[in-house]
Amino acid sequence: xxxxxxxxxxxxxxxxxxxxxxxxxxxILAIGENPxxxxxxxxxxxxxxxxxxxxxxxxxxxxxxxxxxxxxTFKANxxxxxxEGQMLLGGFFAGIVGAYLPAMNPVVAxxxxxxxxxxxxxxxxxxPAILKAYFRVNEMVVTLMLNYAMIKVLEFxxxxxxxxxxxxxxxxxxxxxxxxxxxLGSSKxxxxxxxxxxxxxxxxxxxxxxxxxxxTTAIGKNLEFAEATGMKVHKKIITLMAIxxxxxxxxxxxxxxxxxxxxTLSFSGNPGLGWDGMLIALLGGHSPVGVLIAAVFYAALKTxxxxxxxxxxxxxxxxxxxxxxxxxxxxxxxxxxxTDIGDKxxxxxxxxxxxAGREE
Amino acid sequence: xxxxRMVDLTKKFGTFTANDAINLSVEKQEIKCIVGExxxxxxxLMNMLxxxxxxxxxxxxxxxxxxxxxxPVDAIAYGLGMVHQHFKxxxxxxxxxxxxxxxxxxxxxxxxxxxxxxEIDEVTKLIQKYKFExxxxxxxxxxxxxxxxxxxxxxxxxxNVDILILDEPTxxxxxxEVDELFVNLRELRTQGKTIIVITHKLREVMELxxxxxxxxxxxxxxxxxxxxxxxxxxxxxxxxxxxVLTVRxxxxxxxxxxxxxxVENVSTINDYGKEVLHNISFSVKKGEILGVAxxxxxxxxxxVKVLTGMxxxxxxxxxxxxxxxxxxxxxxLRRDGVGxxxxxxxxxxxxxxxxxxxxxxxxxxxxxxxxxxxxxxPKKINxxxxxxxxxxxxxxxxxxGNVGQLSGGNAQKIIVAREFxxxxxxxxxxxxxxxxxxxxxxxxxxxxxxxxxQGNAVLLISSELTEIMSLSSRIIVMYKGGIVGEVSxxxxxxxxxxxxxxxxxx
Lengths: 360, 506
Known about the structure:
The structure holds two protein chains of two kinds.
Chain A: H1 2-31, H2 35-47, H3 50-75, H4 83-100, H5 106-135, H6 139-159, H7 192-209, H8 211-221, H9 223-228, H10 233-260, H11 273-283, H12 288-311, H13 317-338, H14 341-359
Helix pairs in contact in A: 1-2, 1-13, 2-3, 2-12, 3-7, 3-8, 3-10, 3-11, 3-12, 4-5, 4-6, 4-10, 4-11, 5-10, 7-8, 11-12
Chain B: E1 2-13, E2 16-27, E3 31-35, H1 42-49, E4 57-62, E5 65-67, H2 72-77, E6 80-83, H3 95-99, H4 116-129, H5 145-158, E7 163-167, H6 175-190, E8 194-199, H7 202-208, E9 211-216, E10 219-225, H8 231-239, E11 259-269, E12 275-285, E13 289-293, H9 300-307, E14 315-320, E15 323-324, H10 330-335, E16 338-341, H11 345-349, H12 356-360, E17 371-372, E18 375-376, H13 378-391, H14 408-420, E19 426-430, H15 438-453, E20 457-461, H16 465-471, E21 474-479, E22 482-487, H17 494-501
Parallel strand pairs in B: 3-8, 3-9, 6-7, 7-8, 13-20, 13-21, 16-19, 19-20
Antiparallel strand pairs in B: 1-2, 1-4, 4-5, 9-10, 11-12, 11-14, 14-15, 17-18, 21-22
Helix pairs in contact in B: 14-15
């Protein structure tokens, strides 16, 4: 039963990726290139060379955190769509504090910046959490809309209050050296990856082994049951949103201190790290290990896309096409779980595999 | 002539055979009861007949013609109507709208407008004909569970089907209403209709049916004429062994005088601001079982919700051994020694998509035995589960699987094990044996009796009158949110309680 569950989840996560690659391959064929060669470059350069792998892990770091931030709330059927905004706020103020910090021990400086990021993300997540827990306001709408509010607020702060006028474009001052995570060796990898990994280990225990994880599962699967057996759901909503916000803020702060070093209007890229986190959580089936794998895979696509530009005539936008297709096929999985179409297909497969087994 | 004949009808779900070569025939103008334990395959069989499931193999013949029933629409076209155990009604529509859903009466045949007045008239006539207590213009969401079932029955009666299938039709009715329903069903039979009733209440089988078919583990184990059999014989066929049909209240000593649980002047209002509980006061003594009888929808659900921390009392006081516990949260109540068997086991008692072990600790997952410093102890939890499974004879297919795979009786036993084995001093048992097979009913009843004989208090809320009568030391009767009387089960007949339940005082 358990094995079947795991294999089913695996199929549900891997099938969309394979289908996306197949259709992406058709697009590459249409351009007139060899898809296998292109995919070889895409994944080979990002996963199977030392430098490429380390770069991939570097880009995976914030994605692991945003993915976990989404996963923990989605598991309880709370939809924190505001990870992007919480991440931006955490990153922004980690950057501001990092820039205006007096000279001090670099370890302490980094800890202060990370803490500021965590705190900002957490506090910002409290707005929808309290509205949801005590006033029954739909958290999906609130968190989603607050992202746009936050982007505008940060735009105002970075173009006015905290603008670095020595820069030729809108940005905040660069953070001090003490607050920067320096590269380890020749790759882009920094200590931040290990911070993310530590957060992953903690979240693994929280989600799989702890009382909170147990209650999260119960709340997600049967709210009335959770209430009746004494899990105070409104308090859990606050706790889970706080964790989610903290992870988002940590992602933003770490990204600021290891990659961007200043806040610009395109800090988070397009789509932002928070939105990527949502896809990663879906792809990873809301389990911490799944999120870790999905984040690395997703980051590999990102680093690989640069190599495609270098080594072939396929435009790097092919990666965006593949990402879009993955989202599309992940949505198909959703249909599969809630209708019996999937069952029928499975039955067919079952029969076929039985028949195949007999032939052998 | 057989109106329905099933020949070697088989239904498999994967490797599990729910119905194994069922041969069954129903004569025209008879009342046929199909009995069997939970999970025996009665509902599967009827769902195939009604087109909700397709048979794996075998044939269905209606009026000696082989038919393929692909949907309920087909079934109704063949004159088959079904009243489900789980209601299929639109909560936001009124009673008459639900009854006429799909066959609305128009102002004229070409008019697009619904003739509301004529619809209400029609339904009022229908309601009066069958003497149901219903207001055609009430919304479904505002009426009681019992009322909803009456609408469900009326819906099929309105459609004039020839063959009426009723799945556990009497579960929510008072004895008087059951009698009325039986009168109606017999009347329908004399008008030429055929009725199939799925039930596990043997008393009703004996009273109502002409013939009876017993199903056990997906197979037919007996086709009998009711007049040639007895309750005991049927029970034995169902479970394959003799069972005590009603547990005798065998307590030697009377309850102690010490009051264990006291409820004083409790009132509450529902989400619409309507007062649904009015000045409820009672007490349960140590070693006593207090039964709460009443037709469903007269405040019992709300009373249980208030007492189990799912709803707030607007006034009044609840205390256990003189410790006030009014409006406490469910986790605190459990710490204070209140065990809870909730009304709807899959909504409040268990989570079907979580594992058996996870369900065994629900509500007590804070207990230091299974949880230390916020981390759960899987080994201890599995040991607890294994002990429950063994001690309470819970039959599980896959010990690591989900609770959803268990039959009603075995699922209920998990709740019973959990609540009894956690040091409770008071048990609030709400419909503890609803939808549970006979073997499990006997087991659960004995557990409840043992629990009270050990000097614990039990509050038993049930719509099953025989259960209340045979287990309780005292009985209070609820009607329209209040208590209308207290009686002793030894001194009162079930028909007298029935009158109280209907709000008629003598």
